[in-house]
Write a structure and sequence with these properties.
about 425 residues; alpha+beta; 5-stranded mixed beta sheet; 17 helices; 13 strands; about 45% helix; about 20% strand; disordered N terminus
Amino acid sequence: MNFKLIGFILLIVSQASFATAKIEHWQTSQGSRVYFVQADALPMADIQVVFDAGSARDGQQFGLAALTSGLLDTGAGQWNADQIALRFESVGANFGTGVSSDTASLSLRTLTEPALFDKALETMHVILTKPLFKKADFLREKNRTLSAIKQREESPAEVANLAFSDKLYGTHPYAHPDSGVMATVKNLKESDLAQFYKKYYVTSNAIVVIVGNLSKQQAEQTAEKLLAGLPTGQKPEPLPDVAMPTQASEQHIEFPSTQTHVLVGLPGSYRKDPDYYNLYVGNHILGGSGLVSKLFSEVRGKRGLAYSASSSFAPMLKPGPFTVSLQTRNDQTKQAVEVLNATLKDFINKGPTQAELDAAKKNIIGGFPMRFDTNKKLATYVAMIGFYDLPLDYLDTFRQKVEETTIASITDAFKRRVNTELLQTVTVGNSATAVAK
């Protein structure tokens, strides 16, 4: 019992410390922004380097950003993929790369004991500044990507996501999947990757995030070492604005599945959106809180029409998708979509009840510290704050901003931002089965 009590106290202390994490910010000698949080509880550091080099920067070569990122640690400097992996393994470090629509990132988790830290940092530096993009590595990763794209075509959920993105974004860079499509990936060459890397992996387009057991001076030295040798380059042009659909649409795609996947929505919120907190809290009540959400209650709880029903906003540099989704038996699709739309319209017109709002605030605020209760999670949050240029006190003011939302402010935000007359609907399933039943 005493051990449980001690563990509970440590948890509370750690959550309190993260909630008041002080984010320090400066620029390197080459102009890259650095965000640092000193966290001395463990002899470890989590480091991320983030570039505005996500799939939205693919141009017409869909999949280019993802392949470029994926090849970084397959060969760099004088090392191949196995040698790179062994270098990290020998010091107990973990390294990874990733891509989203907006960003490309490299991440390192390492111990801060000098000899171990220096070797891990040197390895990351070489990966970042001297990738090789060898033909054999490129062909292997390209074929792996093509296989994954082929598998994607066999998933009704993936087919629905692709069609939905196309409906919402059309010719906008957010329309295509991060990994690309068969026609574009087939035509990519290793020289395309090298050119993309040269254009976007530059210091003027980079931010560095460091969270861990380092002094500010050590963090400053770390950032300088990490980016040494990268050209200054230029920041890319801003992404084009997202155009809202001009009219509602419904698209059904036949698929030999036992259930139909349904997606309904519009372009929604962006990271610096003044309506962000009202939309966030409101969506928690509508469909973001799992079993206790309005959508789940109406669609699944009361009527048993779906296996799941939820909604979400995915804020990005430009408005990311607002998505209402469910999966239902083919023969119940029409009724399920009707209930989904009725529930959404009712929420937009009336907003939440006070009891629902109070419960949502309590749930969101109570669970918030758990989202960054490790250095790694905190580093991801700090990277989000840095990349999207959010206030450095974002974590400290989150609770207050949530508390300030009201029934009136949430209802107003949803009425202005979710126009039910423009909703895009995509269904993927077997309509023949539905008719037969």
